[in-house]
Amino acid sequence: MIYEFLKDFHRRAEIIAIVDFITTRVARKTKLREFGFEASETINLVMLVLCFIMEKSLVEEACTKNDVANFIRRLDVEFLKKNIPDEEYLGIVDYIIKDCLQNSGIPHYFSTYNFEANREEKINVKLIDDKRISVGNDNVYTYYMTPQGYKFMFNTLEIEDALKVSIEQFKLNLSIKKRNFNAARNNADSLFNISKTQIQRINYFIKRVKEDIGSAGIEEYERIYNSTFSSIDEQKEGYDNLYELIGRVENSIIESNNNGIQKEALTKEIEDISYIKNRLKFIINEQSNLLLKQQQLQKIYNEAVDNILYIGFENRINFEDVIMKKLEENPDLSYPLIKVLRPLFMPDTNKFFNIKMALGEQRIAMAETYSEGSNILMNERYFNRFESERDIRIRDINNKYIDIFEIICKQALENSEKEILLSTLVNQLRQEYVKFVPDLKILTNVLLQLCNIKEVDFRTIKGQRNKTVFNPSEAFDIKYCVLELLNRDKSYNSIDCLKILLSRNKKVFIAEKPLEEDSDGLFSTEKVVGLNCPDILFKIEVNQH
Q: Fewer CB within 10 A of the end CB, N or C, for the chain?
């Protein structure tokens, strides 16, 4: 290497990658500006949420969206003073966690250079992870720190773990000798948190190795293994010495009980000493557990490597000899391949392809390990059981889109002239008004999209049904709505085309909720929230079959 000081440049760049992610990607998000947060305040809020998640992770407590929302609410009331309505906190948390910290589920990479290996490296930024847990009768997501998240958060205090252990042990030693037990309690808490972090880093790596050995390379294994276990003996000796020291100080204080020390002060010192001893006892026990993890990690990693090598080498075939040459000798052997390829051309199959299973760790199948959902193909019942919150939200929004679209088509179809004005439709609706106006934003989205489209060709969309897969999203998708409408009621198959004509001169007011009549048959004069828009003519062409 030409420049020795660039040897670990890519390791420095990992911190820069995270800072870049937070300061560029997160700071550009405009959602929080609606609540009065400037760019720097947004970054501060994200860091505060990270601190809260880390605190919960260190003590292995669940950290749900409700927990984070309550935390932000307390911050707002006591410090931030943004006067955010109570019902908005969950939305803010959802935005910070999903859109900001989890980048809407899109992997975020930062490019840097490894000068020692002489190659470009991409650093994946992933500060938090989530898993589903049971809380009472409900299943909710809990969020926790990844090892990368821990490393970043500790580095914001500018001290690496190994150095921090030595410094905290020294500070604890000094505080005990000076009988400053208040400071000693804080030092013991810091050592406790570092010890928990070491255990969680190993547990997280073991989890990744079990799930997919391909995501945990030998370099990462050696780095985690060496950085965690190389200084354990030295650390353990330091903890043992501290435990002996606090024991000696405790005996000294008890012996001096008759030398004029105030009873209240003595009681407080004994309480602090007992707290510090319990912390040290726990840490020493955790250190022993960590040494057991050393053997467990070695065993699990070696077994995972052996399994993948067995699958990759012991069971491999020579494709050219076993398949290609035989096909060349007898082309008729290729016809059974149709049976293999046929599922690829069957869009109407009632199964769903389990991508997670297909891309997961490949291991030898055993009958006793079978469970529902472990197949590459899953039935719809299983698929619906594990919908994420986002899937449920998308489904609900699309059901509302379809309801609105169905009401338009139904009202126009029932009219003798096969057309209806938006103003007429709004005035005629009674029980179905709430379905037509579930939310002003959703209705506005539908009307804007229809006006932009101007014509919905039912025939073409029906013709594409078996050729294209339509995946619903939060946006209004007219093709998806048409197909779902046809699935709801076969009578809509008579529609060939829906035309949308906009009136520039006439206006229509759509109230957020149905207007209520008083006893005299007059509508309430209270101020009503609603939507003002041009009148729209919906005209349907039907086939004559």
A: C
